[in-house]
Design goal:
With about 160 residues, the chain is an all-alpha fold. About 60% of the residues lie in helices and about 5% in strands.
């Protein structure tokens, strides 16, 4: 796939999610979801090109949510319940669909909406895109910018 098309689509996505990147390549890495093979794969385990970013993003999301909710005066039980709701994989997947973020996921040949069935971009009910976006924002703009973006993105859910 052409780099210019990827860059154009990532700029559109950045606008959609109200993110102002310094380096758009991090967002492109977050949305690129191609199967990669690893010698550590178990039976039926698949790794994707954005899995590492999603793992990092998951940790950042948990940290920011706990920190924000603590600062807002929530107790341990409330923090745990709110975090469980927001970082739930099914919830993040539905959020990815409802916001249109999924339309910017791509593999080496296609963006999600254009892919024929046999070449579809990964989109199981375990979201890897929002978490990968969080990590991309962190790597590109640092923790404080990322923290503010997460709070803004999830604002209605945190009230």
């Amino acid at each position: 796939m052409e780099e210019e098309l990827i860059k154009k689509r990532m700029i559109e996505l950045a606008s959609l999610i109200n993110y102002h990147p310094k380096d758009i390549s991090y967002l492109a890495k977050a949305m690129h979801c191609q199967i990669i093979h690893s010698e550590y794969d178990g039976k039926n385990r698949k790794n994707y090109t954005n899995d590492s970013l999603a793992t990092l993003g998951d940790s950042i999301l948990k940290f920011v949510l706990a920190d924000y909710l603590y600062d807002e005066g929530y107790d341990k039980f409330q923090i745990t319940k709110m975090k469980e709701k927001i970082e739930n994989n099914d919830f993040l997947y539905r959020l990815c669909l409802s916001t249109g973020i999924i339309n910017y996921a791509y593999n080496d040949k296609y963006f999600f909406p254009e892919a024929p069935l046999e070449c579809q971009v990964y989109h199981a009910k375990h979201d890897v895109y929002i978490e990968a976006i969080i990590a991309a924002i962190y790597k590109d703009r640092g923790l404080e910018y990322c923290r503010q973006w997460i709070i803004s993105f999830f604002e209605n859910l945190l009230i």
